[in-house]
Design a protein that fits this description.
10 helices
Length: 231
């Protein structure tokens, strides 16, 4: 029988962390983090593995505590004016086996009070990789239409991005009148779908998320083909 991995207690902990983001509070609540956040997330990753394999065998659901699909709760504050030490969200990345870091094509789940979402694609790829994807879009407009513009995809996913996530103009090697000029301006080749806390805490959430990711198969396949990794 399906069961909930994430519960209201998961989000209660994250909300309290927002208000108490310091080492003293964290140390006093570390066991709560393990029991209502980390361990349920690792169980979800482990249980999601067979569902992910049905979408593609080239992506990993890795339930290791270090170096796996669950992102670390500690913020890198070295270059940030915000020195709060802990992330107030849960990030789960189902990475491509051929990727060396999170910038490879992948599937993503973000849990945060009032801001849960699922994501697919490549976030801020290196310049050369972004150029390969733009070239693929330019050279295969029918394929891109199937991947990113079909109703089956857009009923679930959105590729809309904020202005600061877009180049100011189409790169000069491409026709500015290309029918997908805005897509050629994207800095990240991603799609997202908002989730409610009720969805995330439902016993059928794993099945629902797998169905969402399945709707993004052609989008992910297009990106994998563009950067030369198998789907």
């Amino acid at each position: 029988m399906a069961r909930s991995h994430f519960t209201p207690a998961t989000f209660k902990f994250l909300r309290e962390l927002e208000d108490n983001n310091d080492k003293a509070w964290w140390d006093g609540n570390k066991e709560r983090y393990l029991s209502v956040v980390r361990d349920p997330a690792l169980e979800f990753i482990n249980d999601f593995g067979p569902r992910l394999a049905k979408i593609s065998t080239h992506f990993t659901a890795d339930s290791r505590t270090v170096g796996g699909s669950l992102m670390r709760p500690y913020r890198d504050t070295r270059f940030s004016p915000d020195k709060t030490p802990y992330k107030t969200n849960v990030g789960i990345q189902f990475r491509h086996r051929g990727g060396k870091d999170i910038h490879a094509p992948g599937f993503y789940l973000h849990l945060e009070p009032r801001a849960c979402f699922a994501g697919v694609g490549l976030w801020h790829p290196e310049t050369a990789v972004a150029r390969e994807i733009r070239q693929a879009i330019n050279d295969d407009i029918p394929g891109w239409n199937k991947a990113a513009k079909s109703k089956a995809f857009t009923n679930v996913w959105s590729t809309a991005q904020d202005g600061d996530e877009m180049l100011k103009r189409v790169p000069r090697e491409f026709d500015p009148d290309n029918p997908h000029a805005d897509d050629l301006r994207m800095k990240s080749f991603i799609a997202g779908s908002q989730l409610s806390q009720a969805q995330v805490t439902d016993a059928g959430f794993g099945e629902e998320l797998a169905a969402m990711f399945t709707k993004a198969r052609e989008f992910t396949r297009f990106l994998c083909d563009a950067v030369g990794v198998p789907f």
